[in-house]
Amino acid sequence: MKIMPRRFLCLALPLALVPLNLPAAPRPASPRPAAGRRTHITPGFDYSLAVARTMMHRFPRASRLPWGYAPALVLYGMDRTWLRTHDPRLLPYIESWAKSHINARGQINKKITALDFIMPGQVMLALWQQTHDPRYKIAAAHLRAKFNSWPTTSDGGYWHAYGRRHQLWLDGTFMMLPFLVRYGALFHDRAWCDATAARQLLIYARHTNDPKTGLLFHAYDESGKSKWANPVTHHSSQFWGRSIGWYAMALIITLHHLPQNDPRRPRLLALVRQLAGAFRRYQDARSGLWYQVVNRGDLPQNWLETSASCMYTYFLFAAVQRGYIGRGYLPVARKAYRGILARMLPGHDGRIHIPDICVGTDVGNLRFYLNRPRKTDDFHGVGAFLIMNEWVLRHRTLLGH
User: Fold this and answer.
1) Cα(243)–Cα(173) distance, rounded to whole angstroms?
2) Cα–Cα distance measured from residue 294 to residue 106, given in angstroms and rounded to the nearest whole number
3) What does 82-109 look like in DSSP terms, one character per residue?
4) Which terminus, N or C, of the chain has the lesser number of Cβ atoms within 10 Å?
């Protein structure tokens, strides 16, 4: 996604208009060879645990990972895996990261100036539920309080970051809203948190929605000063896969917490149905996955992207299970799930790798998105896979036979 330490992300500037002879997208780096016996995938193979162990092998000291959304996404996914397996290595690993950034008084060693830095609050809430260590509750309360003075657009949309003045990015919905609704449910703050989450989803959709495709543009700049902003609408020009995935997951999670009589609920459910229809329309018929630029599967330079595919799969399964859309969408979700598992790359000694993950990404034009580097085992795809796979395993009856 976006604003991250340079170690994990080099932001690229939006490029000029797209020429007709676009170069082919770069191929993903292959996982490095590892010693040991080749991983053998048998029926009942635990993909989540294998992915989690692969990341722990890659980063044996979680304390060295920064405070940011991408590591936190993986750690939150690991917590979901721990809840199911109670593997003794997972929870200490997650806590070692948290305690490297939060002292005993709950103070965070990071200045919170971007929604990206709110997302780790989801890990704080999970750890509070598992351990009841007060530092996690205090840290979460600090993040919740940031919204009391967070800058907004004229209609109340929270800026993506202090350094992204007047801008709304779809990514930001997942960075803040699941944390807010979960915080509200845990700490008796539901009225404000639920209403705020619903309102933000509608504000973001108001500025990025495209009824023609059923998709959402990546970003909006109220000032219209960004190079990528349409001079009339001020939204960006492309439907970037993962940005829509962030929004789709935030939408599903918010609806799950929102009271049944909330007046915004019908409009949010309409967005669920719209996105589900668009995902079915643009799903790749052969692989079951979705493209980096969702609606441009006709371009040979486009490529199937794993993190967004995991997010859409989670969204579709959850929307069916909760009755937001009909069971006719189950074949779409099942095909996507099978397609994701089919792309996994066996490693060694029980490890497994996830390919074709778009690295952190700014806002740009078509060529910019098509040329974004692809990585194997990038945090974005690993975290999205763990969250998706754990949800599917808890509702495995939806997979059918």
Assistant:
1) 9
2) 41
3) HHHH--TTHHHHHHHHHHHHB-TT--BS
4) C
Catalytic-role residue among 79, 171, 194, 221? 171
Would you call 96 exposed, middle or buried from its count of C-beta atoms within 10 A (0-12, 13-18, 19+)? middle
- Is 284 considered catalytic here? no
> What is the tens place of the pLDDT at every residue in 352-366?
999 999 999 999 999
Coil, strand or helix at 209: strand
Phi-psi group of 378: left, alpha or beta (phi > 0 → left; psi -120 to 50 → alpha; rest → beta): beta
What domains sit in the chain, N to C, each tagged with a CATH number? 47-52+157-399 (1.50.10.10)
Structure tokens at 185: 């449910």
Instruction: Report pLDDT digits (tens) over 283-314.
Output: 999 999 999 999 999 999 999 999 999 999 99
- Phi, psi (rounded to 5 degrees) for 395: -130, 45
| pTM above threshold 0.85 | yes
Tokens of 17: 């208009």
Q: How far apart are CA 201 and CA 264, in angstroms?
A: 10
